[in-house]
Amino acid sequence: MRVLAAFLLCTAAVVGAPAAADAAAVAASDAPQVTVELDRTGLSTKIGQRFDFTSTIRNDSDEPLEGVVAHLNVLGLAPSIYVDPEDWSSERTQFVDELGAHESEQLDWEVQAVSPGALALYVTVTTRQGADDVTSSKALRVSVAQARKLNATAAAPLVLGMPAAVVLLLVLAAVRRRRLR
């Protein structure tokens, strides 16, 4: 009897497997087809500089898509690069109420370079339900240089003025002491 039950369970699993695979394939084909593209692939900047870029979210399906959520992500491409995404952009999430069939929406992103090094920025898209697939753009490669600004012309008055001021104060103090004696 146990052998018969085991045989029936194995047969049901084998017969049911193609049906489950077919259901997964149908569900995958019914999933919204969304693409995300960025208006550029790379840029170079310095720490503290602001830059903008645009993402285009396109609904490639025949059905409208409601409650689209787009999110900006920042990755450091080396272990030594610390990234706190909130420092890079205060508005990292944007919402699109409805994206009609075969329509697209452009979203503008403003970012400030915070950490030096090689970084990747990308935009991910899903719906407000959060259970749908997440689609990502290709990376925007960002090279951030350390902002070292040494302006010798502006430093010259300080470099020459401070010692001159100290010498002048010493001379005035010496003259005052002589007069008081």
From TrEMBL:
Bilayer-spanning residue ranges: 154-175
Signal peptide: 1-23
Gene3D superfamilies registered for this protein in UniProt: Immunoglobulins
InterPro entries listed in its UniProt record: Ig-like_fold (IPR013783)
UniProt entry keywords in alphabetical sequence: Membrane, Signal, Transmembrane, Transmembrane helix
Protein name: DUF11 domain-containing protein
Organism: Kribbella orskensis
